[in-house]
Amino acid sequence: MYLTRCPENPIIVPGIYPWRKASSFNPAVILEGDTFYLIERAAGGLRPFHCFFGLLKSFDGIHFIHVKDEPIVSPADLGFPYGSIQDPRLVKIEERYYLTYALRPSSYGYSPTGTGKPEEIRYSYPGVYGLPESFMTRSGIMTSDNLIDWKQVAYTTPKEINDRDNILFPEKIRGRFALLRRPEEYIGPQYKTDKPGIWLSYSDDLLSWTEPTLIAVPQEPWESKKIGGSAPPIKTDVGWLTLYHGVDDDNIYRAGVMLLDLQYPTQVIARVKGFILEPSTYYERFGLYIPNVVFPTGAVVKDGLIYIYYGVTDTAIALATVPLTEVLTLLEHHTF
Ligand code: BMA
């Protein structure tokens, strides 16, 4: 199975406004009729790497323009003016939009090292910023009726752990909200995994969440360091088509796919052993400070094609498409 990279990649690049001068990547995407809406994670510089969310739209899924000149969400909206808001994922449930995000109360600074892992700089910011959790990642949910004005609903993870890649399913499952998570510290014998994996929690009200259940752990060499969810799962007749990412020991980010049971999504029905996307083009291999990253965060289906939107090297946004039926056929061959 081959994904077709858009010839115009990278389709979204940094620039235009000061707050997105350095990078625009890891986007959330939703399709409303024939209009694609995309929420970018963007930063004006690397030191600090202070990230915001911007809103764009497109009629063909390729050429996007900004809906607003200003960010639609800033870390200051959550009470952290020196923070960084990252990796949005967007769903619409019962006529409301929900955006999950990862928040660092304090932004890091980054320097390229040429080795694949950038050097992190920790600044000392005023106020509450000396707290241990200040440089950790907490995830949460915001809601909106119009994609522009967002209101915080709740944090979904405790502040003592690093828990990113929180992704809501696009509908309630057996009456409850369902959320993919990746609690980084949930490793060791008591967690039944020695590497960070993909977990799932349920909630009746979005405010309190069940203890997560482990659903998938790293298995293949391309996932040797960790795995995490990518885009919100796509509902199909045979299960939830779920893109995820894997990181190997050389810090190369690739994308894979699995199928989760429609009614009981903690059950993985199928999982393709190999990756479906890996960094190979110039824009996927060389960027601002971290090389070799493809990081899908949005996926929508239009006319039988899955449009996969992915961040490349934390610098820009690319698009690849593949017929839905091809991915389902591939998964059929990897059913347990
Ligand atoms: C992950 C996240 C992503 C990022 C990726 C590569 O841990 O921080 O936002 O794209 O690393 O740097």
What can you see in these coordinates?
The chain has 336 residues and is mostly beta strands. The protein has one domain: Tachylectin-2, Chain A. The protein contains 2 helices and 23 strands. The strands form 6 sheets. Strands 16, 17, 18, 19 and 20 form a 5-stranded antiparallel beta sheet that branches. A 4-stranded antiparallel beta sheet has the order 1-23-22-21. 47% of the residues are buried. The chain binds beta-D-mannopyranose.
Largest sheet: 5 strands, antiparallel
- Total strands: the figure is 23
Secondary structure category: mainly beta
* CATH class category name: Mainly Beta
Task: Indicate the CATH topology.
Answer: Tachylectin-2, Chain A
Whole-number mean pLDDT: 96
The end-to-end distance, rounded to whole angstroms, is 19 Å
Overall geometric form: globular
List the quaternary state of the chains: single chain
Low-confidence stretches: none
Q: Helix proportion of residues, in percent?
A: under 10%
Could you tell me the radius of gyration in angstroms? 18 Å
Q: Note the run of SSEs as H and E.
A: EEEEEEEEEEEEEEEEEEEEHEEEH
